[in-house]
Design a protein that fits this description.
This protein is an all-alpha fold. The chain contains seven helices and no strands. Helix content is 55%, strand content 0%. The chain has one domain. Helix 2 runs antiparallel to helix 3, helix 4 runs antiparallel to helix 5 and helix 5 packs across helix 7. It is globular.
């Protein structure tokens, strides 16, 4: 689903928010399974995003429902972290700041999973929120295989943790 800019992007104006390093990132980079990591660090958006991405790769109904739940958890954990970092519901969340990628990947996965379970309004809302928060994240995540949230899950190269 190509999301055209249909309105002035009010989210991406203002001071960029940069999250602190995700405490789970080093374990995830070391190859520890996300399911193990989120038990130790349930606040990790990155861990939940990676669980969702794994489920999306399975391409079946039960996995899509699990992916939705994992992504929604990562999304909400990310919103909590953004608020603690000073974000007040507006302003850019730059993709270039690596610790932001856990939240942005969870938001992407939520758009994909919502679409797969036929929650079209949620899929469109999440895709637009991603695009409004970080056009670079939108381009990076939606460009894989030239697809958008309505027709693919994140690809294997998105399974890499923060470096």
């Amino acid at each position: 689903m190509a999301i055209p800019e249909t309105h002035q992007n009010l989210v991406a104006t203002g001071t960029p928010t940069e999250l602190p390093v995700d405490p789970a990132a080093s374990q995830l980079n070391d190859g520890v399974a996300p399911s193990v990591v989120v038990r130790q660090h349930p606040e990790s958006s990155l861990g939940w995003a990676m669980l969702s991405e794994q489920a999306l790769h399975e391409h079946h109904d039960e996995a899509d429902v699990s992916a939705y739940a994992y992504a929604r958890t990562g999304y909400h954990r990310g919103l909590d972290a953004l608020r603690r970092a000073g974000w007040r519901g507006s302003g850019p969340i730059p993709w270039k700041h690596t610790p932001n990628r856990g939240f942005l990947r969870a938001l992407w996965a939520l758009a994909v999973a919502a679409d797969r379970i036929a929650e079209a309004e949620e899929a469109a809302r999440c895709a637009q929120f991603l695009r409004d928060s970080s056009e670079e994240a939108w381009q990076e995540l939606s460009a894989d295989l030239g697809r958008h949230p309505d027709d693919t899950g994140p690809t294997e190269n998105q399974g890499q943790a923060q470096k």
